[in-house]
């Protein structure tokens, strides 16, 4: 969320990706809440059928329907939608071709199953198509995605997509390339072109969530390269689950270097009145040494991420887990950092 | 994740120990399938099981799908490849043991091409391989990777060159795609739709199937365009003549997974989402009558200090901070309090899984301060799993 992102008019589609286990769903939800502050309406979209959003907000599984899921400060509102390819296809047929019955026949002949699970690229076009349609939709649109709606205001101020993981994100978003091998001309191709136009525009930013570990960081760097190569815009880098440092840097360096004043630790543990001070201090020292090793690894990874010329946001590790309250806290942290 | 853990690990919910060594050294174990959600260390676990199996004297092969680069390099894999490569273990495991390890990174397109080449005459194979629809199908991720992983498993099993095959399942959209994909692809290729698309318009098939058919092809042509429909049709007629019973092939792979000698290992980390996903897996494997060998829990945090609960440590730290002395000890106690809290939460989450699925054995791998990306690290995890 660079200066341009922050003015709110430029970026309207926020695609959030990250390696599995980095907390991308949590970040996407917090981002939606942060963007909704100040009376705005934000749509949070799930595309992988995991019902992660419902779990996070503690609600029942989301249907293929946009519904309010949380309130943000000053009258803001977050709606959520779980997109599945089959419903998106049937909706697409009805909307653009007025073919409800055709959809039923296609389902019966296994064509929908084919289009949504087998046909390469089709599924991703349908999922991204739904998200970009929500971005373009304006108040009073009857046929969504239809004619130019003129000056009417957008239904959603922003759309946040909890996207597939980093390893698949470029393929997921680069629908044109996927469909190109299949359909060089025709309506699907036209649809893909339209989706791609929105995805490639400055209205769309792809945000990468990572933690300070080797593999997620490497995947982030690779993923950013792929997104850029596909002509898409990289948004922010969000470092998630950041642990507090606990110690001053010189202390950690000392510990990592193997010189550590265990005597001071023993005296401190004694002063605190804890039992078995010697043994407690010895094992505490072990924990501190592991921590120092970890922090050293983390700074190495930070240094590599520093090479990226993208805005960086940080979110803390929540060792008690994440529920609706924690999401509000994380959203607040994002706002403090300029979202 | 709205629920917060109450105090303590639920009573009587300790899972039985997963004896990984027993599984790997049992000569009857021929296939181990590692499954789990993304980011839990599935590939690392598969590789570590392979190294451990070799250490225990097995001739093992690990099939990985899309591994992290450094992990692949640690096993000497440089690129997608379709034949298993030997992994040099003697330097890592010390003496020259009786076992061996091979590894491969699945190249799904080449695997698909090879099936075509093996089953079609050269002219037909050429037609299929050149077909744009086939090219998309064979290089897309929509189930093809899962199908090809299972196909490769079947091939390696049939070759008889290895006495243990460890499979790392693809990072699927839905964690269970690898169970469904073969069947789905088989169902599609044998489906009514394909028969319709494959049949030239003037034949009897159309008359029999009735009026819906013209509509189906008409709609498809309208949506995807006539060219795509033509590509699909020519692909189908070439493919169908060659394969006939694709479904049968898929069924065979599926039965191989259910057979004696196969063991599924569900890989998870002690985090809410990963454990829920693991539960989902366990239930699905049970429904499909797939043999579950056990759960591997990666990155489990344990405090080094015994008998110092979070609250005690936090209080002690606060006292020292107020006194303004012993900064080092205060910070160390704060660190410990945080670690105790993490451990407590993890134990509670793992207890929840054990309570929901009593009797499912589990093994823990301790969290390490740094990632594992060399053979020594993999051997270390293998030993930790097998308590060797």
UniProtKB/TrEMBL annotation, chain A:
Domain (ArsA/GET3 Anion-transporting ATPase-like) ranges: 13-191
Pfam families for this protein: ArsA_ATPase
InterPro entries according to UniProt: ArsA/GET3_ATPase-like, ATPase_ArsA/GET3, P-loop_NTPase
Domain of life the protein comes from: Bacteria
Name of protein: ArsA-related P-loop ATPase
Organism in which the protein naturally occurs: Streptomonospora wellingtoniae
Automatic annotation (TrEMBL), chain B:
Official protein name in the record: ArsA family ATPase
Domain ArsA/GET3 Anion-transporting ATPase-like: 29-300
One Pfam family recorded for the sequence: ArsA_ATPase
Entries under InterPro entries matching the protein: ArsA/GET3_ATPase-like, ATPase_ArsA/GET3, P-loop_NTPase
Organism: Streptomonospora wellingtoniae
